[in-house]
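Intended use. Records like the one below are meant for learning the mapping from a protein sequence to its folded structure. Do not use them to infer anything beyond what is encoded.
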Amino acid sequence: MSNKKFIKGAFILGIAGLTAKFLGVFFKIPLQRLIHDEGMGLFGLPYPIYTIMLSISIIGLPAAVSKMISEKIAVGDYGGVRRVFRISFFIIIGLGIFSSCFLFFGAKAIITLLDWPQETYYSIIGLSFAPFFVSIMSAFRGYFQGMQIMIPTALSQIMEQIGRVIIGVGLAYMYIERGIGYAAGAASFGATAGAFFGALLLLFYYLKRRKALVDYSLYTYKKDRDGTLIIVRRLIWLAIPITIGAILSSVMGLIDSIIVPGRLLQGGYTLEGATILYGRLTGKAVTLMNVPLTFSMAMAASLVPAISEANSRKNMRELIEKAQTGIKITMMIALPATIGLSLLASPIVHLLWGQTEAGGNILKILAFNVLFIALAQTLTSILQGMNKVFIPVRNLFIGVIVKVIISYFLLVTHFNIIGAVIGSICGYFSVAVLNYIEIRKSISLKIPIKEVIIKPVFATTIMAIIVVFIFNYSYLHLQREALATILSILCGMISYGGVILLTNMLHPHQKKMFFK
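Structure written out for the chain above:
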């Protein structure tokens, strides 16, 4: 797989992810205005449990499928591709059914165990059917991504979000008269509806195009083909560490849902006040932080099969080049996003949720996690592609410990909810540093300081100066914060793009990867 192909794949997934996040704005903003911070707290509390269930049953296997399929394609074993997909499909579906049953039948026990508000029950039930449909999507996405066919995954992401917005918001409006708990639960069902439509699209695409996806004449069927047991063992060996890593990532969010309310209560807040602060963190700050992370997640999804293919051919030069390119593009996207979100935190919150809404102070600090999460994701994908699948798990576990310690002690101080934010930043910073150290030890990866650090920092600095100037000047003369915010964002994007071109941050062959 050429550099061009894997970067174009990341670009396609990134654009689709950004589109999905943009559509998500039409979910979170009206929902926030409908059920307010308390309702967003009820809506957000079950999500860490939901994502952990997805991690346990679903997330690791599609990544393993993607890696195995790319390895089979690298040696021309398309028969192996079909066997891997067929076997993994039924395993993933079975685990999805298990996760749905766990959430549906265990909702009341979860609420009792974690001492959540009783109204959270409806949100858990609304989410409980989603894992089954997500499992179908995950199986197909692993198949297509392993073959470096990103269009189906991209389309399913958009379709999933459209279904979530229309069904989730629509049902929330229908049930608001019955109470905030019912409305939050109805909104949660949007995740199930979105997953259903996304799975339906992928199934339709596969059935219609499966004969045209691959030219069978280009592939050979190996006589010494892997049996079912060998494929299952390989899937499990790859999936377990990826799954554990995904669980630990979800634990980062679960820690907040467990620690934040209790520690804020000990710090003097009421239960309602603690729920409101948690709603501001998850409903506003985390939502906005996740927007630029769509590109890093896309890069990570594209890097695993790309690095795996180079590694399977023992082509260290190609592997290092792809790793360097992945890190460089991650820095180019994450650094300006970090600074831009931090500088315009409150104006962006006011633009999206209203002038009187709080949460900008949380986003101003949380924005710095964009850089460290993005780098941690990219470096994790490089290690996974190199078959070092357990190393990121160890490093993420260390990051979780760092997060727990810092959050626990800071939440009861004057930092309150910001203590959880600082804990998250320190946790992901630790993961990124440890991952990079391991890669350097394994392949002697050298980072071109000028290309990866100096140029992005210079371009981001110019962008930041222009953003601050345009915002202050526009607000002073127009007296309209929303317009000043939009103008400063547009000018910041244009100025950053201009500096990229002037400094040749993207080499000619890299530009062709995106735009040819």
